[in-house]
Specification:
By secondary structure, the chain is mainly α. The chain has helices spanning about 1-10, 35-45, 55-60, 65-70, 75-90, 90-105, 110-125, 125-135, 150-160, 165-175, 180, 185-190, 195-205, 210-225, 230-245, 250-255, 265-275, 280-295, 305-315, 320-325, 335-340, 340-350, 365-385, 390-395, 395-410, 410-425, 425-430, 430-440, 455-460, 465-470, 475-485, 490-500, 500-510, 515-520. The protein is elongated and about 95 Å long.
Length: about 525
Amino acid sequence: MKKKDQNSKSKSKKPKVSKNDKSKKFKKKPKYNNKANNKLKNNNKPKKVNNTVKKTNKLKESKLEYKKRLNGINRKNVSRILQACLKYGNADVRSSISQRFREGLNLNNLNSHSSKFLIKLFHYCNTEVKQFLRFAFFNEKQKNLIFSRFSSDVMDIIYSKLRPKDQISVLQLYTFSNSFYLNNDETRKAKEVNSINQLIQLISTSTSKSSCLEKMDSVITKLAEKELMISSLSHDLLFVYVSLIEDKTELVSQLYKIYGQLLSTRSGNNSILALIDYANAKIKKHIIKSMKRDFPEAVYNKINVNFLIKLVNVTDDTKVVFQHLVEPLLEDLNRLLHDTNSVKFVLNLLNTVDTTSPNTLKEDNVRKEELQKEFVPKLVEYFKESDLKSCILDKNCSQVLLHTLKISKDSNLLDLVLSIFSENLSEFLDNQLYQSMVKCKNKISEEFKEFKVNERLWEHVKSDVKRVLSSKSVFLLIDLVESFQIRNQTDLISDFKNTVTIDIINEAKSALTGINCILKCV
């Protein structure tokens, strides 16, 4: 009973009185929080037709995804399928593909897949498509495509296939300033330019040279910052710019960390050759060390070997040069001395060169002597242990052997060389190595004067004079007799005249024209 009384009391409570003595009547409002009530409420209201496009997809979609959606060829599977169709399809298939993508192509959002597709499109389609792609990439509105990694890949392929005249017109987009085109006379001359050297000459004499240099400077700086100095177009632009500027110190500091990108083309290599003169000792040391690590095969490349030669000739720290450039090559001397390109590098080490560089202090002869102290003994050891006959017969290796003999003055090695001559007389009578050792017109022959090489060769030759006179080896006899006369070796001159008589000469006169030269000497 008590519980019931308590409940009745709670139900019979009066509403609270406010300060103003006015009671408030609370009306319960219907709640529509649950799903069932919401449905009932919505069903009672008339539905509005919404014609606006929902923006939720665009808000959720990232900018990168949105850009990818602009080009279907940006998708990997689409690109690979189309590339296969271009490669294996017939002319009609290629024409339909090119027509489809010529209409809605967006070059501003290329990726690796779309760039590969466009390269294949340029490679397999007809001249009309090639022309379309050329004008699509190389025009005033699309000049900034060169600063995009994937666009520059396509541009490089197109640029490399253009004729020299067309390549010059592309270069003019990035070299000529607006003020240049205001001069009608210079604009007319620009149409007559057919080579890079002519383009450089035109800009150097132009009244707008400074503005052209400013434009090129901005292009080169941006390419260097983005590390996009990898295309032949960028290398040609750099070569034009380097050929026109006088102070190259600042440019070296910008490019030395990406110099490896310049070694792939002739223009890039020529640019770094011109810049390395202005590099300080720290930059040279950085390049030399990285050459050993990143470009161990550079010495065997016909373009890169010139850069290595220049690097040796302008670097004063010979210890670093030998440790990082020369010493690693000693592991395979056989390949080094028989390769046409690497022999140039070796011969440069064995000869002094007149070089003028603003950042070098040593004379070249001092620099080369320091390098030869370590290098020449290794060569002497190699020739003594190797097949010397094959070395003499090889045109490249024989040149290195000749200069090694000149510098080392090693009598044992010289004896081996002369013994091979006597044992194989018929093979070596017209060999360039032996002729160089006695030919007076060659300065190097003076280095062998003390060893009496001409006298020792004559002893081997005179026993078989008739056969020598009737062959191409007759010019060796001419070199020998001239050396006797210049050095005033009377005994040898008389011995030569007694051996090579007029009667013997007349017998062989009809065989070779060189006989007339011997007649004059006798």
